[in-house]
Design goal:
Length: 337
């Protein structure tokens, strides 16, 4: 037999309306009464309906996560599961559920966000990427709906965000190769529609400029964030030039870059040195093990969730953005010239 609110009310010796107010955490109900009602619910095995509870309290205790790609594409790159792991740790600790939305294009993304916000399905949203032409950020800002972006927005006014110093990280990778005697250094990134790709391209260019090395457009390529994308980009570069080193802004892409170099008859690292980004677990087991920039992906997830929940709980937030440090992890994919 299902336990009802009336059963709980009878056990706690209160009115059914009082039970509803306790479930909604109404501040007018005394602590003593709340404890008595929750004890009655526990004794009877009564579990409040989550939907009814959210309607009463106007709080869902749910965070929305917006993926920039389809499910198949997103989970093929270890970055997204790792950043979600960080988010889920904080959500679990703070007793929030997660609602994940994936999409094939920006139109589907915006539709998903509108449904979440207008349907009152979530209390706040975490965007897992930042585009140069992003319709979601200005829409959420205009709606005054709580959200956090993983990735520095092009227009950061009024936006809370978490990211690395991607310009500095790319300079770190490029300078590492320059210090190893390389001057013909190629650069391969994901699409330039993402702010992270633009920032890392800027960091690469700055490192070259500061070391008196001219930027060569023929040594820079972009493609999708995948192994095949890295392979295609490297093949296009090798048709024009033969770099001695490559900065690749994603480890999965770097695996494709290594494969392309080998298919063209080059050895890694003897002929071409490679530095990747993200320090995914597989990078340590690549052949050769990949030197890479560790961007602390897990911490990006942790900090984004903490920042959003702090806003939802109306805690004092000292800053509108958080920069997560990076470090270079040296392995076997680079040699000195």
């Amino acid at each position: 037999m299902n336990v009802t609110i009336k059963d709980v009310a009878k056990r706690a010796n209160v009115a059914p309306s009082t039970v509803s107010r306790v479930i909604a955490d109404n501040p007018r109900i005394s602590k003593e009464t709340k404890e008595r009602v929750w004890k009655a619910m526990e004794e009877l095995g009564y579990y409040p309906n989550a939907i009814a509870r959210s309607l009463a309290s106007k709080v869902t205790n749910t965070l929305g996560l917006i993926m920039p790609r389809s499910t198949e594409e997103a989970f093929s790159n270890p970055f997204f599961p790792e950043v979600m792991r960080g988010i889920s740790v904080v959500a679990h600790r703070e007793k929030y559920d997660l609602l994940l939305s994936t999409s094939g294009n920006q139109e589907e993304e915006k539709e998903a966000v509108i449904n979440m916000v207008k349907g009152k399905r979530v209390d706040g949203i975490i965007l897992l990427s930042s585009r140069t032409t992003d319709e979601l950020i200005p829409w959420l800002r205009d709606e005054k709906f709580p959200f956090v972006v993983i990735g520095k927005p092009l227009d950061a006014k009024g936006v809370y965000w978490v990211d690395n110093d991607n310009i500095g990280a790319s300079k770190l990778a490029t300078n590492y190769l320059i210090k190893h005697g390389h001057r013909e250094i190629a650069f391969i990134s994901g699409s330039l529609e993402y702010v992270v790709s633009l920032d890392r391209l800027d960091g690469y260019k700055l490192a070259l400029e500061e070391n008196g090395i001219p930027f060569k457009r023929e040594l820079a390529e972009q493609d999708e964030f995948s192994e095949d994308g890295g392979y295609r980009a490297m093949m296009r570069i090798l048709e024009r030039e033969k770099p001695t080193a490559v900065v690749v802004t994603d480890d999965v892409m770097a695996f494709g870059v290594i494969r392309a170099a080998i298919d063209k008859g080059y050895r890694v690292p003897e002929d071409i040195s490679i530095v990747g980004f993200n320090n995914i677990p597989l990078s340590a087991f690549a052949n050769p093990p990949l030197t890479t920039i560790d961007i602390s992906t897990f911490d990006l997830g942790i900090k984004s969730a903490e920042l959003l929940i702090a806003r939802l709980k109306q805690k004092d937030v000292d800053t509108d953005h958080i920069i997560v440090p990076v470090k270079l992890v040296e392995r076997k994919s680079c040699v000195a010239r």
